Amino acid sequence: DAGITQSPRHKVTETGTPVTLRCHQTENHRYMYWYRQDPGHGLRLIHYSYGVKDTDKGEVSDGYSVSRSKTEDFLLTLESATSSQTSVYFCAISPGNDEQYFGPGTRLTVT
Amino acid sequence: QQQVKQSPQSLIVQKGGISIINCAYENTAFDYFPWYQQFPGKGPALLIAIRPDVSEKKEGRFTISFNKSAKQFSLHIMDSQPGDSATYFCAASMEGSARQLTFGSGTQLTVLP
User: Fold this and answer.
1) Domains in chain A with CATH codes
2) Nearest to B46 among A31, A42, A99 (CB)
3) Closest residue of A to B51, CA-based?
4) pLDDT tier at A69 (50, 70, 90 boundaries)?
5) Cβ separation of B93 and A42 shorter than 8 Å?
6) Cis peptide before B82, with omega less than 30 degrees from 0?
7) In chain B, where the domains are located
8) DSSP notation for A47-84
9) What is the pLDDT of residues B64-92, one digit of tens each?
10) Could you tell me which CATH number the domain at B4-112 has?
11) SS3 at position B5
């Protein structure tokens, strides 16, 4: 998985609780992305980062925030989790060419 | 708004047959078209990609055919094997916005032994 780890790999949480997912890379790539994968929707971009402290919104950013204080770490936070945020979350990295490489994913269940 | 439409949703092929998955896009600014392969419980893995300046790209048993005028591209898997059974996603990106990918909805391929 191209030097990308995600933690936790599985999480069950209750509605209304905050949740933070972590993506860590060892490739020193500039770009990092968070996607969610849901049946019938493929993967949809939540947020992305183009450098330390530089982030922007994707297609489905409502209810999510991100932070990148170091090149290697990109955090995704659900401030108050809802059942609609039950999904599989994937982090991806890119050196700045077209190619993106994905991590192993985090399966999040919000009850 | 789904900008990349993928079909079929599922596909069953006999071992040794040809698997064909199709995608159509709307935004003519897209200039990079990758295909990803995903096995259960794993992240998507980049399989093969094409730019619109060529009509075909082949890597081993995998071929992308690209039709710029029709705004369509397809993945052909020759001599399909049971190990090819996976979900395949087409995607597209354009210059700017950190090259964010817009994905199709996926095709679940099953290759029967």
Assistant:
1) 16-98 (2.60.40.10)
2) A99
3) A98
4) very high
5) no
6) no
7) 4-112
8) EEEEETTEEEE-TT-TTEEEEEEETTEEEEEESS--GG
9) 999 999 999 999 999 999 999 999 999 99
10) 2.60.40.10
11) strand
